[in-house]
Amino acid sequence: MNAFNPTVEFDAIRDGVARVCAGFPGSYWRDLDSRRAYPTDFVNALIREGWLGAMIPEAYGGSGLSLSAAAVVLEEIHRQGCNAAACHAQMYTMGTLLRHGSEDQKRQYLPGIADGSLRLQAFGVTEPSSGTDTLALKTFARREGDEYVINGQKIWTSRAEHSDLMILLARTTPREEAQTRTDGLSVFLIDLRGKIGNGIDIRPIRTMMNHATTEVFFDNLRIPATALIGDEGKGFRYILSGMNSERILIAAECIGDAKWFIDKASTYAKERVVFGAPIGRNQGVQFPLARAYAHMIAAEAIVYRAAALYDAGHNPGVEANTAKMLAADASWEAAEACVQTHGGFGFAEEYDVERKFREARLYQVAPISTNLILCYIAEQVLGLPKSYGAPA
C-alpha cells in the first residue's frame, strides 16, 4: 500500500521541476558556494520553463497556479538538492501584490516578472533595531506632492543586488500618532533600476550560507506616489498575508530538504559496508532515519493544509506558522541524521551534505524564529498572556 500523497495532483509539476534541476548537480552549487556567486543560470532556467511565474495570473503572462502548486515547485527544487532561496521571494511576495496591488501596477510589472525581464526578489521588512518586532520599524516614507521620500535602513534583505523590484514596508505615520499599533505602516513596490547610488545603497552581508543577503540604506529616495500598494497606513495587514505565504512556501522547502537528507542517508546506509555488512542494518542507523521520515510526513500534512486554506481565501496564520515550525524541525532532524549516517564523509564538500546542512539550519531562525512561533501559538490559540512586547 502506498503512503498517502497530499500533492499527487501536482505530480506533473514535480516531474517538470525535477527535469530542470537535473541540469544543476551538486558540483554546480558547490562552485557557487565557494565563490559566493548568485545562481543566475539556474534562475534563468526556471524562468524559461515558467516556474517563477507560477502564481502570476494567465492574463498577465503567468501560469495562474495556486499557492499549493507553488509550494510543490519549491519543495521539489530542494528535494533535488538545489536551493530556491535565490528566487523564492518572487512567489511569496505575489500575495501582497496580487491581493492588494492596483490594476495599473499589475499591468505594468507582472508581465515582465512572468517572462523574466523583471525580477521581484527583494522583500524589505526587517530592520537592525526592530528585528521581528515589525511594528517598531523606523524606515519612513514622507509624502511630498506626487512623490514619497524614503529614509531608513533594512537588513537581511536577500537578493536586493539581483532584483529589479522590491516590496518595501515603511512607516508613513509617526508611531506616536498612529490610531492603533498596526496603523501607519504602508507597502510600496519600489523600482530599483537607476536607484542604486541615487537614494539606495546596498551592502552585502557574508553569512554561513550563500543567500546573497544584504543590508539596504535609503537616503532621500524619491519614488512616485503610484508606488504605494493599497491604502496608505494599512500596509501591515497586507504584509501579514505575504508573511503567511512566505511561511508556507519556506515550510515546503524544508520538506524538500528533509526528503533529500533522508534519501541521501538511506542510499548511503545501504551502500556503506563496515564490519562486513551495510551499516543500514544497524538499528542505531535505522531508527534516526525512520523517526525523521515519520516527522517529515507529519509536517508535510500541515504544510499542504495551510496552503489549501490560503488558496481558499482564508488567512491561516496559525497553520502557516505551525507548518513553518514543524517543517523546519523535520528538516533539521533529517539533516542531523544524515550527517551522523555519513560519519566523517558528512563533512566532506563532495557529498553536498554539509552544504545542505548549513542551509537547513537557517530555518530555525528565519523568516521567524521557532520561539516566536511558540509564543504566537500560546497567545493566539491557547489564550495565554503575551510573553513579549510591552507589559500589560
What can you see in these coordinates?
This protein is an alpha+beta fold and 392 residues long. The chain has three domains: 8-115, Butyryl-Coa Dehydrogenase, subunit A, domain 1; 120-233, Butyryl-CoA Dehydrogenase, subunit A, domain 2 (Beta Barrel); 237-380, Butyryl-CoA Dehydrogenase, subunit A, domain 3 (Up-down Bundle). Helix content is 46%, strand content 14%. A hairpin with a 2-residue loop joins strand 2 and strand 3. Helix 10 (317-342) packs antiparallel against helix 11 (353-361). The longest helix is centred in the middle third of the chain and has 37 residues, at 235-271. It is globular, with a radius of gyration of 21 Å. 44% of the residues are buried. The mean pLDDT is 94.
Secondary structure: helix percent: 40-55%
Give the strand order of the largest sheet, numbering strands 1, 2, ... along the chain: 1-4-5-8
- Overall CATH architecture of the largest domain: Up-down Bundle
* CATH class term of the largest domain: Mainly Alpha
CATH topology of the largest domain: Butyryl-CoA Dehydrogenase, subunit A, domain 3
Order of helices and strands: HHHHHHHEEEEEEEEHEEHHHH
Please outline the helices and strands:
Blueprint: H1 11-21, H2 26-35, H3 40-48, H4 67-79, H5 89-92, H6 94-100, H7 103-115, E1 120-124, E2 140-144, E3 147-155, E4 165-171, E5 185-191, E6 200-204, E7 214-224, E8 228-229, H8 235-271, E9 273-274, E10 277-278, H9 283-311, H10 317-342, H11 353-361, H12 370-380
